[in-house]
Amino acid sequence: MSVQEQHTVIDKMVDAIIYIVHDPEDLYKIHSSRHVKPMARLHYLANSRFGELFESPAPPEPSQESTERSLDAALIVSAIYRGDHVELQALLDRCDCSGLWDENLGLVPVDLAYKQGTREVIRTLVEHGCVTRYPGKPLSNSGIIKGLAVAARRGNKEVLETWVTLLSERGGCLSSDLHEAMLGALKIGKFEMAAVLDKNIDWTESDMKLIWFECFHRAVENGMLDVLKWLLSREGSSLAGHARQWHKTPLFIAMKEYPVEKRLAVVGLLLNHGVDPDGGGRKLTYSTS
């Protein structure tokens, strides 16, 4: 390998370290337990007045296979970041990429594509069977991440539309992913992304009403005026006429539980859009006292 080629590879590794989902130090860790040799190390641990003898395996020796797989994953991340779908195609064609989507290899290449992939990069990934769900950061509470929710929260309309369109063409059920993406987008005020998702959700009118109802209540609870305006202009005041939990209507929540500095604006918005002051049947005596 020439000096120039070495520098090119180093640059790509830098791309990977900067844009990986997981911690940089995880990038070249050993990922396969079958490479651990059965060497033992004795540890004497004090426990109260007594000690117990334990055996634990020695640190695993480096594995060429795991290093190569991590290198492939890093190069894929770099190709996605640079928008080089030709290189990405070549990498995916030559390596076993099945584990790169959902195994904990220190990074999840597809996560970066959900955030900022170009149309051709996304198309290449979809053609190679990329996942719509993948593990979050180890030792965190993020659990399984849904890629469409990541794209929706990111707020890039073109990227989100591309993902939804190409994944829909590939087939498979995206209802749960679209639902979570919708809620995630509206939760942070990305209602333009919600409009993109709405065009692609093939649900019944009653199912969609339930989504708007849940989004509306979340917006009320979080004081998101822009989202409330968008939903009310779209669905009307009927959204606010039903209680969600403990029989609390949105107007009740706004009047009783909101911080003072936000209360007037939210209550005024609800009333101006025809929300029933009685809360759709629930008297607000307690909340207005």
Automatic annotation (TrEMBL):
Q: Which Gene3D superfamilies match?
A: Ankyrin repeat-containing domain
At the top level, the lineage of the source is Eukaryota
Q: Which InterPro entries match?
A: Ankyrin_rpt, Ankyrin_rpt-contain_sf
Identify this protein by name.
Ankyrin
This chain's source organism reads Penicillium fimorum
